[in-house]
Each structure stands twice: as structure tokens, then as C-alpha cells.
Write a structure and sequence with these properties.
By secondary structure, the protein is α/β, with parallel strands linked by helices. It contains five helices and ten strands; from the N terminus they run βββαβαββαββαββα. The strands form two sheets. An eight-stranded mixed β-sheet has the order 1-2-4-3-5-6-9-10, sandwiched between helices.
Length: 237
């Protein structure tokens, strides 16, 4: 079977233009899946896995679209200018540009889909925003200790200048907003078997966002692709 070729498209939101990566049939029997990507370091670790998942969906006849969010991926926005509300607006605009897609949100992406008009929501390993911030703070603390630098995690509250956390320059308002952000209710929640939190589906595989470097897990890709395809078929039926 020929390897599906990715296509670059764009969506326009109030803050400018951002890229969309498309894979799969232009017009298929099943609807399009919009992917809300993971955030920050997890986005880097899961980028290759996410694209491999899109290729697997394409082989099954399911079209998928991966948008860049402002300040993430190849976006020209500076991360320090980002806000949860802007991410939500941008993702909702990307969804609207596709009509009424099925939405598949990964990790921190599950915090951003509340304004999207969708045919259904599938959350993969959803996480509270506070957990994401704690992970970033922990990485920053370890770096500070290794480099004998002063860092007080209690001193990153607003107001004040942007803060560097794990290589990300973030506004203090964004940090506060993320601490309070929670995933909305989804039609389907799935997690890899190593994640003990509540889910409707346990899938064979590991938490790749915890690995030191980006990796692929072919068994997990296959399991997620199969479950997404069945879910889309049920929604379309």
C-alpha cells in the first residue's frame, strides 16, 4: 500500500494564520478527525507518534488534520504571548474550517476543545492543567539545581515578567490559567494500560510523554487507530 502523503493547509483565526497538516482521503466515507495536540515538552515527545497515528488512520480510510496552535509547532507566535483563551479560540476556528469534525485530543490538548463545534470528542490520556505545570516546574527545578541557579516556584505568580519553564517562555497569567484548566467531558476517554486514572478504554502501550526522548509505540498506534476508527463509524452511523 502506498504511503499516504501529508498535505499542508492553513486556517485563519483572530491572531493570524496557522498551519494544518492533513493526511488521508480528501473525501471519504468517514468524517474528518481534528487532532488537538499535546502541549510543551509533551508535544515534542509525541509529535512523531501523532503523525504515525495519522498515517495509520489514513490507511484505514480516515482523514485527519493536525493544527499548529499559536506559539506551538511551527507557529510564528511567541509562546510568552499565548493564553489558554487564545488557544481555545484558535482550535475552535480550525474546527469550524473543517465543518463539524470528530475531535481527538491528546493530553494537554483536552484542556482546549471546549469551544469547538464537533461531531464528538475523544480524549486520549486527559490531564489537568495543574499537572502539566507541576511537570514543567519540576524540570525547571532540576535544571536549577544542576546549574546552581536560584529558582523559587512560589515566585512565578502574576504579575511579573514571563518565566522560563523547561525551555518554554510562559507568561505568569498563562501559568495561572493552566493551573485552573480541566478537561471537559468527552464522549470517549482512553488511556494506555500504564495510566491508572479513570477511562472507558485501556489500550496496550506505555506513556510515551514520560520518555526521555521521542519514541513510537506501534502497538499503541494500532490500538488507538482501531478504537478511533470504530468510534468514528459509530458517530457517523
Amino acid at each position: 500500500m502506498a504511503e499516504p502523503a501529508p498535505r499542508i493547509d492553513y486556517y485563519h483565526w483572530a491572531g493570524g494564520r496557522e498551519a494544518l497538516l492533513r493526511l488521508g482521503p480528501e473525501r471519504g466515507m468517514l468524517g474528518t478527525v481534528l487532532i488537538a495536540p499535546a502541549l510543551f515538552e509533551e508535544a515534542n515527545r509525541l509529535r512523531g507518534w501523532t503523525i504515525a497515528l495519522m498515517r495509520e488512520l489514513a490507511h484505514r480510510g480516515v482523514a485527519s488534520v493536525l493544527p499548529d496552535l499559536p506559539g506551538q509547532g511551527e507557529s510564528v507566535w511567541k509562546t510568552e504571548h499565548c493564553a489558554v483563551a487564545k488557544w481555545r479560540t484558535a482550535l475552535a476556528t480550525a474546527a469550524a474550517s473543517l465543518g463539524k469534525p470528530h475531535l481527538f485530543a491528546i493530553r494537554g490538548g483536552t484542556l482546549l476543545d471546549g469551544e469547538c463545534l464537533t461531531a464528538g470528542r475523544y480524549h486520549f490520556a486527559p490531564v489537568p492543567g495543574g499537572d502539566l505545570i507541576r511537570d514543567l516546574v519540576r524540570i525547571r527545578q532540576l535544571s536549577a539545581e544542576e546549574n546552581d541557579e536560584a529558582f523559587n516556584p512560589e515566585a512565578i505568580r502574576p504579575p511579573g515578567p514571563p518565566v522560563e519553564l523547561a525551555g518554554n517562555i510562559l507568561s505568569r497569567w498563562l501559568i495561572d490559567d493552566l493551573k485552573a484548566a480541566m478537561p471537559r467531558t468527552a464522549d470517549r476517554v482512553a488511556r494506555p494500560g500504564t495510566d491508572a486514572r479513570a477511562a472507558q478504554m485501556r489500550l496496550t502501550g506505555t506513556a510515551l510523554w514520560r520518555r526521555a526522548r521521542p519514541e513510537e509505540d506501534r502497538d499503541l498506534i494500532g490500538a488507538v487507530a482501531t478504537d478511533i476508527t470504530r468510534w468514528v463509524e459509530q458517530c457517523e452511523g
